[in-house]
Amino acid sequence: MRSASRYHITTFGCQMNKADSERMAGILEEMGFQFAENPNDADLILYNTCSIRDNAEQKVYSYLGRQAKRKQEQPHLTLVVAGCVAQQEGESLLRRVPELDLVMGPQHANRLGDLLEQVFNGEQVVASEPIQIVEDITKPRRDSSVTAWVNVIYGCNERCTYCVVPGVRGTEQSRTPAAIRSEMVELGQQGYKEITLLGQNIDAYGRDLPGSTADGRHQQTLTDLLYYVHDVPGIERIRFATSHPRYFTERLIRACAELPKVCEHFHIPFQSGDNEILKAMARGYTQQKYCRIIAKIREIMPDASISADAIVGFPGETEVQFENTLKLVEEVGFDLLNTAAYSPRPGTPAAVWQDQLPEEVKRDRLQRLNHLVSVKAAERSQRYLGRTEEVLVEDQNSKDSSQVMGRTRGNRLVFFTGNITQLKGQLVPVKITEFRAFSLTGQLLLVAC
Ligand code: SF4
Q1: Of 18, 68, 81, 331, which has the fewest Cβ atoms less than 10 A away?
Q2: Distant-in-sequence contacts of 349-353, Cβ < 8 A, 24+ apart
Q3: Residue 132, pLDDT score
């Protein structure tokens, strides 16, 4: 076994990848590795990759190139590629970067220790076969000491025609409610205040668990899970992501309204405002159904924050169909909208369709959408002005050390003057004095002891 001492993990992409990286860091520390802030001081380099769009994928190759060169001078260096590009490319990554020691798909994150044993015995390893994800026993090395991600379901059974996720993260695998609750109990004991329950399609939670029937009548659901974990001691806030309009229920909204710890924020990607495009994307709902969901949320929880994801420039998207997306954004008024230009992905149906749009058309539409998104977000932010908001203090403002930052229950970033040593992890009342499209400034209201 090679005695490597220090590791560095670079994470690309979504919250699921961030959560996987935290678990893999925990496994490495369990093996005796220490974290190296600077990758060039590390003996083991791990890239946890994203392949949701081409530019995300290309990023890792430039990083890898540098480390592969370094490995030619320092043969003891261990090079690992994990995540969605590793799953998508598998063996071919070894041909492209022969210096690699380990290529491992997202389903294998919890097996990092075993796989490295094989590497340290001199093997070059590719782990991308579909497996049943085992519960992780090691303690994740979490980036925050205030908020934590908790996976509830891995993979996705949907078949959105632009998406690589089902191909790289596999079929749905829900964790048991007991496993999720015990992880949250431990986090509560460690002083964590906020939990985000994670799933690519979190509304599918439970449908693969034993006892669930195909008609869904006897099924553990996300709503049941929220009731089951709501009373975990020490946890003050519960969030969840990512929702799917196809399976989103009124029962879930009513549970969120009823359960005090569940924050008033929903992340529900709509992707397009045009029904023809939604059909071509195989999303399984119409823009009318989407708007009914938003209307129901606002009827039951009028002040709830709503964020989403949208794609412009999908193959065949006409100017009129794009304008339907603008109309939906205008009508809904999102607190935040993650936008992206369509990027053809390997192995996805839409990538081989004839009617791909020119890059300049995609760029133009993205710009127009982003402009509207900022205008609407500023309108949404304005409602906070003069209000006193409960803010969970997470960190110091990296741009102004006299300030701290945190988020409202509606997931809006707030900056205000304060001492991070005193306030970190505290839920404090903050009077909002300024608003911007995506963040707020406020004043800490001192609580009489
Ligand atoms: S729901 Fe669709 S977009 Fe989301 S991860 Fe699954 S396949 Fe991808």
Answers
A1: 331
A2: 349/159, 349/161, 349/282, 350/161, 350/162, 350/280, 350/281, 350/314, 350/315, 351/162, 353/315, 353/316
A3: 83
Query: Quick one: which atom of ligand 1 is closest to the CA of 163?
Result: 8
- HSE at residue 40, side-chain half, CA atoms within 13 A, is 4
The tens digit of pLDDT for each residue in 351-406 reads 999 999 999 999 999 999 999 999 999 999 999 999 999 999 999 999 999 999 99
Residue 166 C-alpha to ligand 1 middle, in angstroms?
7
Rounded Cα distance between 205 and 355, Å, is 35
pLDDT tens, position by position, 66-112: 999 999 999 999 999 999 999 999 999 999 999 999 999 999 999 99
Q: How far apart are the CA of 350 and the centre of ligand 1, in A?
A: 14
> What is residue 6's three-state secondary structure?
strand
The pLDDT tens digits for 99-125 are 999 999 999 999 999 999 999 999 999
**CA 392 to centroid of ligand 1, rounded, Å:** 30
Domains and CATH numbers, the chain: 6-127 (3.40.50.12160), 147-382 (3.80.30.20), 385-444 (2.40.50.140)
Question: Ligand 1: which residues within 6 Å by Cβ?
Answer: 156, 158, 160, 163, 165-166, 200-201, 244
Closest atom of ligand 1 to CA, residue 283: 2
pTM score > 0.85 for this model? Answer: yes
CB atoms near residue 385 (< 10 Å)? 13
Check residue 1 and give its pLDDT: 46
Q: How many angstroms separate the alpha carbon of residue 6 from the centre of ligand 1?
A: 36
